[in-house]
Every structure is written in structure tokens, then in C-alpha cells.
Amino acid sequence: MPNQSRPATLKSMAIALGVHVSTVSRVLNGDPAGVERAASTEVVARIRSLAKELDYRPNTQASNLKLRKSQEICVLMPRLTDLVMATIYDSIDSAAEQAGYLTFVANTEDQQARQMARAEHALRRSVAGLIVGDSHVGETQPLLDLLQRKHIPYVLVSRQITGHLTAGSDDEMGGWLAAEHLYQQGCRDVAILAGERHASTGADRTRGFIRYYREQGITLRPEWILNGPFDSLTGHQQGEYLLGLNPPPQAFFAVNDFLAIGLMGAARDKGLEPGKDIAVVGFNDTPLAKELFVPLTSVRLPLAQMGLHAVELLHKRILGEPAESIILAPELQVRASSSRLRRTD
């Protein structure tokens, strides 16, 4: 019998049973065709009985190195402190588990150098594939180029780049819906808190918003379209600046809820009430949006579905099956921050 003071191995069990180590491997690693060729029913039963007796656990790390594959998925996220990204990752992790994968997340801080370093570390672990949530528009794509060149399965989530498989939302349509609502509220002088320049989410939402107003014959002021990080501090700072203008904008579209929340804080500091003195629309419809002192109108995205579809698409890529991008439709949730404006006409 194998020395029970040490973990059982395929080799030690093969010696104890008087069979070849490859036979033990086929039986315990789930190769039905190989088992039928290599062993009788009686030998299979003996191998499984001994493995159970010794509480044998496969060395998956060694198997992965040998086979150059694993059941792990690396998820590259810009910031896990971002509730939207955390929600998407939670869905990815649940869907991956259902599909037989384990996930681990790498926080890239939305920097391409960190993105590449984290991805290279994942590739050294022979991951089954990658889900990328921080690709940059308008720039070279060294990571995506590398993955394509090495034929490594990957899919984008939330962000979109032409020519790359993605599970995302129709962000341009979301911006269009926000603009349509504000226009119907009588808002003509509108500012945009547009987020990071390199993020497809902010760029597409801004584009859709501007397009709607252009179709109504209105050109929005370019100096009222401000870029910056997707956080409440930036929203507050940009809100202070815009609300300090004479005259200030009548309405505000923020490409995520945190920018909108920061702007609403700046309005409060100036004695202004969203929904009465100004109109504010956010994006993503995070759970906090409807709980604010003035509930926030926001464009809702199916974030959990986005994560689920990212795993589905990646699984198809891993299996070598054809796959097409999935783009989900947004919905506008109208609340008090934009629906009760005081009329000045």
C-alpha cells in the first residue's frame, strides 16, 4: 500500500495495484474511452476504491502545466471599487462557476501597462481565457493584439472596440434616450459630464446624446462637455465649475451615476434642487440612484446579463465555436431629478 504519511499519487497507487500509471490516470481523470481501452471493469473498480480510501486529490496545477490549459478565467477590471464593475464581475463569477470555471480578477487601474502585466501573469498560469473590461478606444491595443496573435480566447465586457468580440450595451442609444427626455422637458442649454476620453462607454454615451440634439437642430456648446474620471469627486468639481458660470447650464447629462451624484452635491451646496432648479440625468441606474434625497433619473443597463453573456461568449471561444457580439438595450428610468423643472418661460 502507498505510504499514508504522504499524499497519494498516481504513481504510488499504480505501484500498489500492479498496473501502469497511465491506466490509473485515465480512470481518475475522467477519460471514458481511454478507460475502456486500458482496463477491465475489475481493475477500474480497484483503482477507484483505492483512490477513495486514500482520499486522492488530483494535482490540477501539474495537469494544467502539462496540458497547457486550465479551467481558470482571468477577468481584467479597471477598478473593483466601481460598483458597476463589481456588479458585472459578480455575475461573471457566478456564470463561470455554473460553466465549470473558476475566475480571478486583476485590477488594472485602467492603465495599459498594468493591464499587460496582469494579463501576462495570467497567461503564465495557462488560463482558459480572459474577459477584458478596460480596453481603450482611439489607442493601440497591445494586449488584444497579443491575444489574437497567440490565439488565446478573450472577450470584452462593457466596453466595445470594432473588430473584437464583446458583451456590452448600446451605450450610444442610452445617450440618445437621455437627450430625448431632457429635450422633451424643455431643456436646451445642456452640459455633459463625459467621463474618461479613452473609455468607449463615455464616448458612445456622449455621442448618442449630442446626436439627438443635432437632429433637433441644436448644437451643444463644446466648452460644456467635460472629461475626467468616472467618480463623484470629479462630478462635484465639474458641477461647481458649471454651476458657477453666468448663466449656468439648465440641465446636465452625466455618463455614469457617480458623476451625477457628485454634481447633485455641488448643486445642493449652491442652494439648488435637482428636478426644480436644474435637471440631472445619470447612467447605469445603480441601486443608490433611486435612494438619493432627490431620486436620480438614470439610464438602466442589464449589468448582470452583461456578465452572463461575457462568460457564454468566452466559453464558445474556448470550445472553438463561432460567436457574435451581444449588445443589450438600455432603458430610461425617469425620476424626480429631471421631471419637475420650474419653467422660466
UniProtKB/TrEMBL annotation:
Signal peptide: none annotated. SMART domains: HTH_LACI (SM00354). Pfam families: LacI (PF00356), Peripla_BP_3 (PF13377). Transmembrane segments: none annotated. It comes from the Bacteria. PROSITE patterns: HTH_LACI_2 (PS50932). InterPro entries: HTH_LacI, LacI/GalR-like_sensor, Lambda_DNA-bd_dom_sf, Peripla_BP_I. This is Substrate-binding domain-containing protein. It comes from Pseudomonas extremaustralis. The lineage of its organism: Bacteria, Pseudomonadati, Pseudomonadota, Gammaproteobacteria, Pseudomonadales.
